[in-house]
Amino acid sequence: MKDGDVVRVALIGCKGYSQKFNLPAYQYMKNARLVAVADIDEQAAARAAAEYKIPSASGDPFSVLKDDDVDAVEIATPNFTHVELAVAAANAGKHILVQKPMATSVQECNTMIEAADRAGVMLSVFMMFRGNHLMHDIQTLLQSGVLGRISSIRARMAHGGGALASPGSWRRSRRLTGGGCLALLGVHWINLFRWYLGEIARVKAFSKTLYCDMEGDDVTGALLEFKSGQIGMLETAYCVQPGGDMLEIYGDQGELHYHKSQGVHIWAKRPFDGKIIKYLTPGEHYHLAPPVDAPGMVHGMYYTFHEEFYQAILEGKISSLGGRDGRVDVAVLEAIYRAAGSGGTETVLP
Ligand SMILES: NC(=O)c1ccc[n+]([C@@H]2O[C@H](COP(=O)([O-])OP(=O)(O)OC[C@H]3O[C@@H](n4cnc5c(N)ncnc54)[C@H](O)[C@@H]3O)[C@@H](O)[C@H]2O)c1
Fold first, then answer.
1. How many CB atoms lie within 10 A of CB 190?
2. 224-277, pLDDT tens digit by residue?
3. How far is the CA of 340 from the centre of ligand 1 (A)?
């Protein structure tokens, strides 16, 4: 790295998620600076470069990989494009941050990990909850045993993305998404479940296309068994109104409910004085109203994860561990789809 204190990044994919979250979030980062943007829609790249004063814009995502002034790429393109772009980036010696889900199959994830390891570059998958201050607080609460021994975790992520996707959109294709709404939305909670309770061993599921004109699932419900024996319940939908995202965790000493539109509710026998959650009177009902995030953290969820990724690069802590973690999420997705197909219980394959 020539410019020792900042990672020079090329963002590939400028509309959709990038336009809403990524491009603004990069403005707040200390460890990284956008030096190039690329998109197969050349005008979208040009617009992003003009709006955010980024020096280089291209309609060819592979051209930025030849640029010696680029140290890393963030891949924010449709799921089916991740593998080709990531392998090309690794071969060009660029570090890689890729949007979730890592790819459309475990096989593609393996190809990406092998390419990163061969090239000795960093590979990680952006999972938004890993940069979310509330979700970190909840993890600390669980670790400190406030809820006691956890028996089950439940979560739901749903909105009307299936109906909103335009007719030719990649979001309607099973192959191009790697499934459907489970791969697009449910993967967030799968990653968080694993973060909180460890690896998932076995799954049962129903996965259907009920109301949307799409090939992939627009509603999926899965029952998960963790290696620890604890139970997880996951629901995801692409055919409903937004606002119903929620997480519930039950233990023998208390319980926690998070609902996006209602905030956090806790009841427990012990107090917890977290960064955001201030549950100071045990035995009483606690309510933290939304929006729930650390004060002053504009776009915090979208750049905290990135800052840590780029910090690791600056410190020379190069690894593909983030990619290996993203691969396990995709293995769980595959097991859920297999279980929905077979009607039985499926093991998450290593
Ligand atoms: N919260 C989250 O973490 C979150 C939310 C939304 C999307 N995503 C992920 O971000 C990625 C992009 O999703 P989106 O909603 O922005 O999609 P999108 O279709 O809205 O935008 C994708 C962008 O990539 C460009 N593009 C397509 N193929 C390309 C290629 N081969 N090379 C370069 N550019 C290409 C398109 O022109 C477009 O600008 C997906 O992997 C998705 O799962 C993550």
1. 29
2. 999 999 999 999 999 999 877 899 999 999 999 999 888 999 999 999 999 899
3. 27
pLDDT at 35 over 90: yes
CATH number of the domain encompassing residue 288: 3.30.360.10
**Residue in 14, 19, 99, 105 to alter for ligand 1 test, most ligand atoms within 8 A of Cβ:** 99
Pair 164, 80 in one domain: no
The parent domain of residue 106 ranges over 7-127
Are both 179 and 278 inside the same structural domain?
yes
* CA–centroid distance, residue 6 to ligand 1 (Å): 25
pLDDT for 272-309, tens place per residue? Answer: 999 899 999 999 999 999 877 655 455 567 788 999 99
Q: Determine contact, residues 183/276, Cβ cutoff 8 Å.
A: no
Atom of ligand 1 nearest to the CA of 79: 41
How large a percentage of the chain has pLDDT more than 70? 97
Integer Cα distance of 201 and 167 in angstroms? 37
- Is 183 domain-assigned? yes
Mutational test site, ligand 1, from 51, 77, 81, 132, max ligand atoms within 8 Å of CB: 77
Q: Residue 267 domain-assigned? A: yes
Whether residues 122 and 150 fall in one domain: no
pTM score, two decimals? 0.97
Do 144 and 242 sit in the same domain of this protein? yes
Q: Is residue 185 located within the same domain as residue 273?
A: yes
Neighbour count for residue 290 (Cβ, 10 Å): 13
CA distances from residue 239 to 178, 184, 186, 242 in whole angstroms, order as listed = 18, 13, 14, 9
Q: At what angle do helices 106-119 and 82-91 cross, to 10 degrees?
A: 10
Q: Is 209 in the pocket of ligand 1 (CB under 6 A)?
A: no
